[in-house]
Amino acid sequence: MTSTETDGERGVFTQGSTIRHVLVMSATGAVGLVAIFFVDLANLFYISLLGQQELAAAVGYASTVIFFSVTANVGFTIAATAVTARAYGSRDTSAAHKNAAGSLVFTVILNIVLAAIFYPFLGPMLDLLGATGQTRAIALGFMQIVVPSIPLLGLGMCTSGLLRAKGDARRAMYVTLSSGLASAVIDPILIFGLDLGVTGAALSVVIVRFIFVAVGFHGVWVVHSMLEWPDRHWLKRLARPFLGIGVPAVATAIANPVGNAYVTSVIAQFGDDAVAGWAIVGRVIPLAFAAVFSLSGSVGPILSQNYGSGLFERVNTTLRDSLVFCVSYVLVMWALLALVKNVIIIVFGATGAAAELIDFFCLIVAGSFVFTGALFVANAAFNNLGYPMLSTLFNWGRATLGTIPFVYFGIAYGPKGVLAGWGLGAIVFGAAAVVVCFQVLRRLPERAAREGIFAAEMPAVPTAQSPFSSGRAAGVVLGTGHVQKRPPDTR
Fold it and tell me: Half-sphere exposure (CA, 13 Å, Cβ side) for 387?
């Protein structure tokens, strides 16, 4: 295929209601996230039914460590989606299929390395988090079973991203939903039916990940036939854009579990009850605020399309609509959590400090997710409008300066004080990120002009086929905002 551009339809997100695009993209993204985190929640729920608080605490410690692998794979999935979607946008199906297969190769290699690094240091990591005695031993056994399956997690997440790159959002959702449904069935069988306890919970995670991959490959390979094996030269060429997008995305995503790990280590000072309460809160959060967590990835394509088409006012409108949606959603969910807090406590059998921590989160700290969501929206703008380092800066700022000092001063007030400090840090950095984001938007036309993208009320000429670029800048890369020439033919 040559590097000449082809005329095509306008990008979906460059027309129609921006708030509708935000709502639809956030809703579908939220369903996928809920399914992924439901696996952990189901594990914790069934373990809590065994009636031993140290078991729930052990799973909480283990999940904190394992969450690092999830966030790393978020970055790899973003890269896989970007390189594949760009090739589809330029109507180079062969390149798209090679990029899809190459992305899976890179994902497997990177996850094998990640698992190999994690495994010998599982004990020290648990020590760092403050796990001791029987709780530490249980958590270590759980992780020794689950960590080797990290490459399966990466493959499943990657196939879901590739289906979104293809445009099959429904089937991408099925990939993630399969893991949640399988966990709901397999967990009780292994934990209670075979009386395997925590070991059964760990084995369930591994089995569910195999199912996750199988469903993903059915969509990618059987349904869409979108895998074409790349040669060594293609893989070498693909490595640069894949890592160029994936590494910054991983660096940004990994900040959140770093901050959460610190909070876990501090709460551990108050005993297993407090850790169990924090673990339950940590499972409720992604379910309750899935739409907020999905904002960064959901808003990104909308911003990128309109930016590439020079529709800067729609970029501004999308940001405003995203923030309005975020505030409205969090306020509704905050009220709902306040109403059902006692139900959550009863369902998980929480008592003492665990119950108090859940109650405090639902009544007070949940409201801070207005600002957490604002940070995610700002990150989407930074990543897709050419300022990725700002996203990394604010996420790491939130995980360090926005967590450590606030939590440190909260220690004097017990576990509730720690949780309050964690929430206050989100308010500070979320507000700051939004302020900087709108300053970036004011300079957007000048930056775009330097990249060959010029303001337009509506495209007056046919746009390029890529849903992330215009006819004037058909090389815009998803997630970077940088204009690049298409690579020469590699065949």
Answer: 22
- DSSP string of 351-377? -HHHHHHHHHHHHTGGGGHHHHHHHHH
Q: What is the C-alpha separation between 342 and 350, in angstroms, rounded?
A: 10
Cα 259 to Cα 400: distance, rounded to the nearest angstrom = 6
Query: Domain span at residue 320?
Result: 10-464
pTM more than 0.85: no
Nearest to 374 by CA among 334, 414, 429, 424: 429
d(Cα 454, Cα 270) in Å, to the nearest integer? 57
Q: Is the pLDDT of residue 81 over 50?
A: yes
Q: Give a yes or no: residue 484 inside a domain.
A: no
Q: Give domain status of residue 204, yes or no.
A: yes
C-beta atoms surrounding 241 within 10 Å: 18
DSSP category for residue 231: -
Nearby residues of 375 by Cβ (< 8 Å), 6 or more positions away: 394, 395, 398, 426, 429, 430, 433, 434
Q: Say if 163 falls within a structural domain.
A: yes
Which range among 31-45, 206-220, 221-235, 360-374 shows the weakest confidence by mean pLDDT? 31-45
Q: What sign has the CA pseudo-torsion 389, 394, 399, 405?
A: positive
Write phi, then psi, for 9 (nearest 5 degrees).
Answer: -75, 155
For 34-108, strand residue ranges (E) read none
| Rg (the chain; Cα; Å) | 22
Q: Are strands 463-464 and 7-8 parallel, antiparallel or unpaired?
A: antiparallel
Predicted local distance difference test score (pLDDT) of residue 177: 83
Q: Are 357 and 278 in contact (CB under 8 A)?
A: yes
Alpha-helical segments (H) within 167-231: 169-188, 197-217
CB-CB contact of 33 with 290 (8 Å): yes
489 belongs to a structural domain: no
- Count how many domains the chain has: 1
The single residue listed with the structure tokens 């369930």 is: 204
Integer Cα distance of 30 and 333 in angstroms: 14
